[in-house]
Amino acid sequence: MAAFSLETRPGNGRTHVVISGLVDEQVDLTPIIGLDGTVELNLKGIRRLNSAGVRVWVDALRTLSKRARVEVIEASPAVVDQLNMISGFLGGGTLRSFYGPMICERCDKESNHLFDAGEVRDLDRLPPVTCATCSQPLELDDDEDRYIHFLREPTRVG
Predict the structure, then answer these.
(1) How many domains does the chain have?
(2) Rounded to 5 degrees, what are φ and ψ at 77?
(3) What is the pLDDT of residues 16-26, one digit of tens each?
(4) Model-level pTM?
């Protein structure tokens, strides 16, 4: 499992934050708590969160959301799992995009596909995605209704 990392960089009137690795009780999220303005959290690299890490995460996001406008992009499947289980996982943040684990039945190829959260919410389903290798439709490697359930709940999607 990749070690936890958190990188911040200013740009285009916002602070870009890239978080990756394992979120557990030892993570230090203090670098983001004091940010203000617009904060874009890229969560593509989060591979796993344990229960103690979720508590640390939720507390940090609540605090950050009081000071900043939080936008979450590229939420990994591990983050989507937490969105489906934990009320308030994003604090007051807005989800812009997330990954879905896709599989091609014909090629047996697996990939993560980036979805626009607003589009999926508006459709109330995932839009069609085709395999880059054989052009056949890809299927979500999970139950779609369960996987996108968080979009039907109070999670802010924009």
Answers:
(1) 1
(2) -55, -35
(3) 999 999 999 99
(4) 0.92
What pLDDT score does 11 carry? 85
CATH number at residue 141: 3.30.750.24
Question: In the 3-class helix/strand/coil scheme, how is the chain assigned residue by residue?
Answer: CCCCEEEEEEECCEEEEEEEEEECCCCCCHHHHCCCEEEEEEEEEEEEECHHHHHHHHHHHHHHHHHEEEEEECECHHHHHHHHHCCCCCCCCEECEEEEEEECCCCCCEEEEEEEHHHHHHHCCCCCCECCCCCCECEECCCHHHHCHHHHCCCEEC
d(CA 14, CA 39): 6
Whether 46 contacts 77, CB under 8 Å? no
Instruction: Quote the domain boundaries for residue 57.
Output: 5-157
Distance CA 144, CA 87 (A): 20
